[in-house]
Amino acid sequence: MKDIVRAVLVLMAFFGGSFNSYAQFRDGMFEYLVRDILHPDEVSVRVIPEMKDEIEEIEIPARVEFEGEEYTVVEVAAEGFASCKNLRDIILPETLLSIGNSAFRRCEKLEKVNFPESLIKIEDKAFSTCRSLTSAILPASLRSIGDVAFCLCDNLTNVVLPDMCRHIGNHAFSDCRSIKKLRLPGALETIGLSVFMGCSGMERIELPPNLKMIDQNAFWSCTSLNELEIPASVDSIGSTAFAECWSLSDIRMEEDNPHYCVVDGMLLSKDKETLLAYPSALEITTPEYVREIGVASFALSALRRITITPNIEKIQGTAFLSCMSLESIVCLSPQPPEIAYPGAFLKDEGYMPLNCTVYVPEEALETYRGAMGWGWQKIVANTALGLQEALDKDEKAVTVYTLDGTLLIVGGRSEDLYALPRGSYIVRDAKGNSRKVVK
């Protein structure tokens, strides 16, 4: 029989026919398809369409006989069990090598799946939207996880990834909100596009020692992630990789990384001249060694206030994209920093400006209003720059008195000082140091 099947498949392939439509048979609730010409004794399996709404618990056999011949089940066919709305539990055979594209997609009641030690590949969307799935303990044999493979598995909590898995596809675990801790495979070199986007419950993730790339949006909206150690091997970190990671205050970078460094929660280029990301920032005065604010470096952050010091020469496009909490920007330089296309202070990709106020030196008011990328904002003269410049750059709160000792401001910040009339004041910083300031 197998020789006949092989001969038929060869002929159909030669004449351009569809061999899978011929080399298939049914047994019970399953339909089996011979994989290809070279493997006439290996089959993929799927449930027959009329049984999709009936099955709740099933076990797929490792081998099946048909017309006196034995076939080995090595694959769950593409969309083989997709949208089986009542399926809760499935036992996969120990002979299985691959789980096909969308094989169990939208099986929203699926709670339990065993992943056999023979499994090598999980293809795209295989378990996407399996909202009841709680565990994915993947075997040591696994080498690849496809795009969107476990996306929107809301209740997935226990995930074990084998050390030799070399590929995890884009969006593979996005919106898996219940995962709290994860160790990535030792063989993994790339964290792809949006792999963990929306994993809002993720508190800790262990990166592999030979990781080379963290792609765009990799950890977007991992709002509970509070610590991350980046290995020295990483040579590429995509923009918005840590967007909306508001709790990520503890970023550590191995000192011998030749491309990046971390200072006080800020991800910087190795020479410290470009600020690349500051996920947990609420307010900041740009450090004196920084020359450039990078692409999307504060995008979607909870930043409320920023003081841009005269050393900043350029602000890259989308640097403050969707910073909806941003209230004030204080620019200390009379010369506006260059803003790259499409703009730095945008509400969204529709190029609407943020609703914040830009304070600039009084003599530079019209210069800022006419500068490319600045004119969209509400720009006002900052008459308190003399007072601001007198403060310690690291100071976050001050107390201000009149010369006769009348208390004016407690816990003040730079924007609280703008309304003060011209005159002389006593300013006390958080360390207890006092000085006389003339405004």
List the helices and strands and how they pair.
Blueprint: H1 2-14, E1 24-27, E2 30-36, E3 39-47, E4 57-59, E5 63-66, E6 69-76, E7 89-91, E8 98-99, E9 112-113, E10 121-122, E11 135-137, E12 144-145, E13 158-160, E14 167-168, E15 181-183, E16 190-191, E17 204-206, E18 213-214, E19 227-230, E20 236-237, E21 250-253, E22 260-263, E23 266-269, E24 274-277, E25 283-285, E26 292-293, E27 305-308, E28 314-315, E29 328-331, E30 338-339, E31 357-361, H2 365-370, E32 378-382, H3 385-390, E33 398-402, E34 407-412, E35 424-429, E36 434-438
Brief summary of the model shown:
The protein is mainly β and 439 residues long. It contains 3 helices and 36 strands.
Question: How would you describe what is shown here?
Answer:
The protein is mainly beta. It contains 3 helices and 36 strands. The chain has helices spanning 2-14, 365-370, 385-390, and strands spanning 24-27, 30-36, 39-47, 57-59, 63-66, 69-76, 89-91, 98-99, 112-113, 121-122, 135-137, 144-145, 158-160, 167-168, 181-183, 190-191, 204-206, 213-214, 227-230, 236-237, 250-253, 260-263, 266-269, 274-277, 283-285, 292-293, 305-308, 314-315, 328-331, 338-339, 357-361, 378-382, 398-402, 407-412, 424-429, 434-438. Strands 1, 2, 3, 5, 6, 8, 10, 12 and 14 form a 9-stranded mixed β-sheet that branches. Strands 22-23-24-26-28-30 form a 6-stranded mixed β-sheet, with no helix packed on it. It has a 5-stranded parallel β-sheet with strand order 25-27-29-31-32. Strand 23 (266-269) and strand 24 form a beta hairpin.
